[in-house]
Design a protein that fits this description.
Layout (H helix, E strand, L loop, with lengths): L9 H11 L11 E5 L2 E4 L4 E4 L14 H13 L12 H11 L4 E5 L2 H17 L5 E5 L8 H6 L3 H4 L9 E4 L4 H5 L6 E6 L2 E2 L5 E2 L2 H14 L2 E5 L23 E4 L10 E5 L1 H4 L15 H16 L2 H22 L3 E7 L2 E6 L3 H10 L2 E2 L1 E3 L3 E4 L7 H17 L1
Parallel strand pairs: 3-15, 5-6, 5-7, 7-10, 10-11
Antiparallel strand pairs: 1-2, 2-3, 4-12, 8-9, 11-12, 13-14, 14-17, 16-17
The structure holds pyridoxal-5'-phosphate.
Length: 400
């Protein structure tokens, strides 16, 4: 840990939260003061292996050297501009994203929820010319916490207390094409889903399902939106989750890993939809600033130059094999799911206990759904570190 890091006592830090911060997050009792790569240090000086840095938003780990330079340089050059000016970094980033995904154009925002809001607005704008405003999303999905995106989220617990919800949203069963067909009508503007449901419990879509949705949308003129906030930017072992399936959406949303730890959101729309948004239809003060675009560009360049997708695919295969083998041995493991570095282990046990035990042993893992232990390692994690983490998870599962 750096000697310059000023550490207040853990109690001081927590007491400030108690007094001044709205308690909308469940705290795990830890105060973290520094990070480097896949490791973080607590206020007690303890080092932890972080297997979900930034909830999937730190693809290069903590305090990556590759971003330190661009962050410092950009701070000296130009941080923020209103979007009625052009600057050299936004178009370049949009081009890089388009070249890695599909033909179209990008809009930049600040978070996953904001990216999804924009995508939903675009779908309604397109649909408004034909009297279409309804949106089909899926049970167990997660799309954010703003009004439209919490409504899009197919989980009652996320809706509770915020009714009435935004009208026009309907929920189908994930991986059940017939349940979608039953909801499609002449008012359907969009179908939105995560190619792998992340927060809901790491449930991958089947190829057959996504192909079926693509055909359904083509047949009825419905906008197909993939929420790639969690699955995008190399998480699944390809640049975007849809590339695992060979099924292209009309609109794709991004956030989390794109900024390498700096807030950013974006949506990408195919050309026939992108130009529907004309001046005055949508905006975001901080979206696509010189600062965040330069950082996001460095994230993409680093993933490319360091061949991190190869790292993800090679290490993911080893980890999945270990967990699959364990599943055959241990009754506590009900299922192992995921792709690349988005991996979920569904357990019979209370998963929060297992997570606490991993933490006691110096490894930070996360929960998804009700009983899924999820890991979202940095794309540049070293094999030794990842395997040490897997050893600890195995130990905890064996003791369960
Ligand atoms: C698939 C998905 N969409 C949207 C969001 C919301 O993103 P944000 O928290 O940046 O608003 C999340 C966050 O976890 C997510 O996983």
């Amino acid at each position: 840990m750096s000697e310059t890091t000023e550490i207040n006592t853990k109690e001081d830090v927590m007491s400030l939260y108690d007094q001044y911060v709205i308690p909308s997050y469940l705290k795990n009792g830890m105060v973290l003061v520094q990070g480097e790569g896949s490791y973080v240090w607590g206020s007690d000086g303890e080092r932890y292996l972080d297997l979900y840095p930034g909830w999937g938003s730190n693809p290069l780990g903590h305090a990556p050297v590759e971003l330190q330079e661009v962050i410092q340089e950009q701070a000296k050059v130009l941080l923020h501009l209103p979007n009625n000016y052009c600057h050299p970094w936004q178009g370049k980033l949009a081009k890089a994203i388009i070249e890695k995904s599909f033909e179209g154009k990008c809009f930049f925002a600040n978070s996953g929820a904001e990216a999804n809001e924009g995508a939903l607005k675009l779908a309604r704008l397109v649909g408004s010319q034909k009297g279409r405003h309804e949106v089909i999303t899926f049970k167990q999905s997660f799309h954010g916490r703003t009004f439209a995106t919490l409504t899009a989220t197919g989980q009652d617990k996320v809706h509770k207390g915020f009714e009435p919800l935004v009208p026009g949203f309907h929920y189908a069963e994930f991986n059940n094409l017939e349940s979608v067909k039953a909801l499609v009508n002449e008012k359907t503007a969009a179908i939105m889903l995560e190619p792998i449901q992340g927060e809901g419990g790491v449930y991958p879509a089947t190829t057959e399902f996504l192909k079926g949705l693509r055909a359904l949308c083509d047949e009825h003129g419905i906008v197909l939106i993939f929420d790639e906030v969690q699955t995008g930017i190399g998480r699944t072992g390809t640049w975007f989750g849809f590339q695992q399936y060979g099924v292209e959406p009309d609109v794709m949303t991004l956030a989390k890993a794109l900024g390498g730890g700096i807030p950013i959101g974006a949506f990408v729309a195919k050309p026939q939809f992108a130009d529907k948004m004309q001046p005055g239809t949508h905006a975001s003060t901080f979206g696509g600033s010189p600062f965040v675009c330069a950082v996001a560009q460095a994230v993409l360049d680093t993933i490319e130059n360091q061949n991190l997708l190869i790292n993800v695919n090679q290490l993911s295969a080893k980890v999945m094999q270990r967990f699959e083998q364990l599943k055959g041995e241990l009754n506590v493991i009900k299922d192992v799911r995921g792709s690349g570095f988005l991996i979920g282990i569904e357990v019979e046990e209370d998963v929060s206990l297992l997570i606490a035990k991993c933490m006691e042993k110096g490894v930070l893992v996360n929960r998804a759904g009700t009983n899924v232990l999820r890991i979202l390692p940095a794309l540049n994690i070293f094999e030794d570190d990842l395997m040490k983490g897997v050893d600890v998870i195995e130990e905890v599962l064996r003791d369960a």
